[in-house]
Amino acid sequence: MAPTYNEGDWLLFIGLPANVKSLLGKVILIQRASGAGSDFLQIKRAIRIDGANIWVEGDNKESSTDSRSWGAISSDEIIGKLLFRYRKGPRR
């Protein structure tokens, strides 16, 4: 999700809300299955919601792997939505 979120940023997520439509435009944490039988976490933005299907995209259009590659995700893959970000200031 660079340039919005970068290495070293601390992100706090809260659980999935009852109303999935409230995620539209929000940054969410998703759990995707890899082909090797393990899961991995990704941070994406919910762009479009159609029932239980959510179209997600990263903020870096040129290099993000997201719904443009996989298609829409299921709401079952969403772990939570971003509540707070802590970014360290520049070192002096």
From TrEMBL:
GO annotation, biological process: signal peptide processing
Alphabetical list of InterPro entries matching this protein: LexA/Signal_pep-like_sf (IPR036286), Pept_S26A_signal_pept_1_CS (IPR019758), Peptidase_S26 (IPR019533)
Protein keywords: Hydrolase
Keyword Protein biosynthesis found: no
All copies of domain Peptidase S26, residue ranges: 39-86
Keyword Repeat carried by entry: no
UniProt-listed SUPFAM superfamilies: LexA/Signal peptidase
GO molecular function, one term: serine-type endopeptidase activity
Pfam annotation, one family: Peptidase_S26
GO cellular component: membrane
Protein name as annotated: Unannotated protein
